[in-house]
Amino acid sequence: MAMRPGDAGVEATRGSEPIPIEEAYTINVVPSELFLKFRKELQNLRVGINLEFFNYEVNDYEAKLVLKPLSTDRRWKFMYRPIHGDVQVLSKKIPLTKYLNLQVGIGHSFHLNAMGWKWKISTCLGGDGVSQIRNKTNISFFPGFDLRIGWRAEYTLPDIHGGMGTGEPVFDMNYGKLNASIDRIEAILTS
What we know:
elongated; DUF7781; DUF7781 domain-containing protein
């Protein structure tokens, strides 16, 4: 199989045609969510005001008032969302396994005059549990100002394959694929 200049050896899913290296990876550095968080520590509580901006096409935004205990074993957090008119009390993420967490909560909607509860199982591994990683990276610039970057990487691992008498090449290789993006940036001001 002949490689054309510029293909950089990337073999792909288009049959025996090599794909350009530019199609083997994508990296998006423009976040889809921007958060501005103001935090104040009062006695044994952290009081926070979160301003969240997302969905650039329609400029969606949300404001939240968040209360959390300052102790290291905090078990809950309280949230009030004035635009939606609801309050929630959420548990901290409870580890079920090394990669799975459970979070439960109860809430009341003033607009609907209804109460309810919800639960969520989450993981840092997404997608099919193997091909996607989600994580947050914290950068501390100076005391009282942190930047938290939420990022995601989806990938297909490379593989080597071949065959004899099947019409396939004896040796063939797929170099994989990577899609990475910065999903969220949070600026956190603490006093």
